[in-house]
Amino acid sequence: MKNRTLLAYACFYLAFLYLPVLVLPIFSFNNSAFIAFPLTGFTTRWYEALADSALQQALVNSLKVGVVTALLSTLLGLLAAKAVTQYRLRGRGVALGMISLPLFIPDIVLGISLLLLLGTIGLPLSLASVVLGHLLICAPFSLAVLVARFEGFDPNLEEASADLGEDRWMTFWRVTFPLMLPGIIASLLLTFITSFDEFLVAYFLSGTQATLPVYIWSQLRFPARLPMVLALGTIILCVSVVLVVLAEKLRNQGVKKPMVGA
Predict the structure, then answer these.
(1) Is residue 53 assigned to a domain?
(2) Could you tell me if residue 22 is inside a domain?
(3) Does 45 fall in a domain?
(4) What does the pLDDT average to over 27-31?
(5) How many domains does the chain fold into?
(6) pTM (2 decimals)?
(7) Rounded to 5 degrees, what angle do the CA atoms 104, 243, 200 make?
(8) Domain encompassing residue 102
(9) Is the residue at 212 inside a domain?
(10) What does the H/E/C string look like for 159-177?
(11) Cα(125)–Cα(111) distance, rounded to whole angstroms?
């Protein structure tokens, strides 16, 4: 009885999460500008309408911001993870708490605060300011992934490399980096997805250089363009699912699992 109840709860929970998402692909192929049942027919014209210069520019902006944010946040996360796991640092818990703090601050509060800060110091709103905002959000994700990877890392390997005459830089490239590579790639993928999908901070900091989520938000004012937004959302959803699954698979690669019955 207990197992059936848990199974029913799990099915209900999954349906609650994913059934609304299925509306995107269903109506993105519907031959009607109105989002309502019954469906009127199959069409791909909403996907053909994605060949829009403003949309493509917004996509390019989001790709630029996502790539730069992923690289910078992963670099910062890699250095921070190595520091907190391989060295005995004073205030380690406080440092981890401060890095993770942006995860608990509402994005709208974070966006307004950064907007006021940039205005005070005289920095213009641009894609660079969006990258700064996204770093605050993505760095904790990168740190969480890489700390988990470093906790399974044997520091004796670096000591053995040093005993064989390698300096710290070559030890990092020949020993540490290859072993950390799955975690680094997972961090890059997760932080890119987080930055690519982020809306509120980009809305406040992008200025006239809209990212893709900001562009989608602006199109929702026009009911006739809503099916095109659904088509775009379907593509983003599929790509995001693939990247998340790939990131999770890479994150767990090489991680030792406890033996059953050990």
Answers:
(1) no
(2) no
(3) no
(4) 79
(5) 1
(6) 0.76
(7) 35
(8) 64-251
(9) yes
(10) HHHHHCCCCHHHHHHHHHH
(11) 12
